[in-house]
Amino acid sequence: MNKKEIKALISLLDDPDETVFDQVSMKFLSLGEEIISVLEDAWEQAFDTLIQNRIENIIHQIQFDLIKDFLRKWVNPDNQNLLEGTLLIARYQYPDVDIVKIKKQIDQIKQDVWLELNDNLTALEKVKIINHILFDVHNFSGNTSNYHAPQNSYINNVLESKKGNPLLLSIIYTIIAQSLDIPVYGVNLPEHFILCYVDKEHMGVPSTEGNKGSNVLFYINPFSKGAVFGQKEIEAFLKQLKLNPLPIFYEPCSNLEIIKRLLRNLISSYEKLGYPDKSKELDKLLNTLG
Predict the structure, then answer these.
(1) Any idea of the CA torsion for 153, 157, 160, 162, to the nearest 10 degrees?
(2) Which own/partner contact pairs does 241-249 have at CB distance under 8 Å and 24+ positions apart?
(3) What is the bridge-based pairing of β-strands 194-198 and 216-221?
(4) 251-278, pLDDT tens digit by residue?
(5) In this predicted model, what pLDDT tens digit does every residue of 121-143 receive, in sequence order?
(6) In degrees rounded to 5, what are phi and psi of residue 185?
(7) Given phi > 0 = left and psi -120 to 50 = alpha, else beta, which region is 246?
(8) What distance in Å separates the CA atoms of residue 35 and residue 50, rounded to the nearest whole number?
(9) 0.85 surpassed by pTM
(10) Are residues 232 and 261 in contact, defined by beta-carbon separation less than 8 angstroms?
(11) % of the chain with per-residue pLDDT over 70
C-alpha cells in the first residue's frame, strides 16, 4: 500500500459511520506491525480525541495479535524457552519493553553467581550462592505490601523494582540456575509457586502416590529469600488448604505450565482491579496455549 492510500485511510478515522471505521480498522490490522510507526505519527498530528482513541485501539490490536502469533509459535515444544515466554507476556502491557536491557540484567546476575561457583559444591551450597546473589547482593524480595498488583507479574518491572510475587521471583531464579546447568525447576503448588532442586540421575522417573517427588532433593521458596524445605512442609501446606497431596504438587512442571500460571495470575490481578477488558484479552492469550 502506497503513502497516498495510507493517508486516505487515516483521513477516514474520524468518520462517524461505525461501518466505515470498522472497514478502515480491518485494513490497518491486515497491514500488521509495519503500519504502527505510521499510525503513531498520525496520532501525534491529530488533535481530535476520537481519532487518537481509535488509533490507540488499532495499534493495541495489532500488537495484541502479534503476541498471539508469537505465543502460537512459542507453544511448540522445541520453542518453550522460559525467558522468551515471560518476555512475550511482558510485551502485552509494555509493547516497547527493552528486551536487550532485560537480558543484560539477567546476564549480570548470572555472571555474579557463576563467579562464586565451583565443581566441588553440593546442591545445597549452590542454592545458598544463588540465594546470596539474588537476595543479598541484588536485593530481590517478595512484594508483600502489594502482593496482587499486576506489576509483580511483569519481568521488566520486577527486575527494576527488585520486588515480585512468588511466580516471577521463581522464574528469574529458574532462568539463572538453569543457565548455569543447575537443575532447578518450577513446582505448580496451589496458592504458592515454589521451586525444586532435582536429582539429575533420576530425572524423568515417574512418581507414584506413595513415592511423590522421588527425583527431588529439596524445595526452594524464592518468596522467602530462597528458604529450603522438604516434603513435610508441602504436606502441611496442602492440609491447611484442605487439598489432596497429589503427585503433581511435588514434581517439576513444564515451562508451558509456568507461562499459563503467569497469565492466570494476571487475569486474577486485573479482575481484582476492575479491568475486565484486560482480563478477557489475557484469557485469549491463555487459550492460545491450549
Answers:
(1) -30
(2) 241/190, 241/191, 243/190, 245/212, 247/207, 247/208, 247/209, 247/212, 247/213, 248/188, 249/187, 249/188, 249/189, 249/190, 249/212
(3) antiparallel
(4) 999 999 999 999 999 999 999 999 999 9
(5) 999 999 999 999 999 999 999 99
(6) -135, 160
(7) beta
(8) 19
(9) yes
(10) no
(11) 95
Please compute Rg for the chain using Cα positions: 22
Shortest CA distance to 171 belongs to which of 91, 100, 262?
262
Cell of 71: 505465543
Between CA 88 and CA 158 the distance in angstroms is: 15
pLDDT at 213: 66
Q: What is the mean pLDDT of residues 76-91?
A: 96
Three cell numbers written together for 262: 503467569
What is the distance between the alpha carbons of residues 60 and 278, in angstroms, rounded to a whole number?
A: 12
**Domain limits of the chain?**
3-74, 79-288
Instruction: Answer for the pair 171, 258: CB distance below 8 angstroms, yes or no.
Output: yes
82 and 258 Cβ atoms separated by less than 8 Å: yes
8 Å CB contact between 167 and 154: no
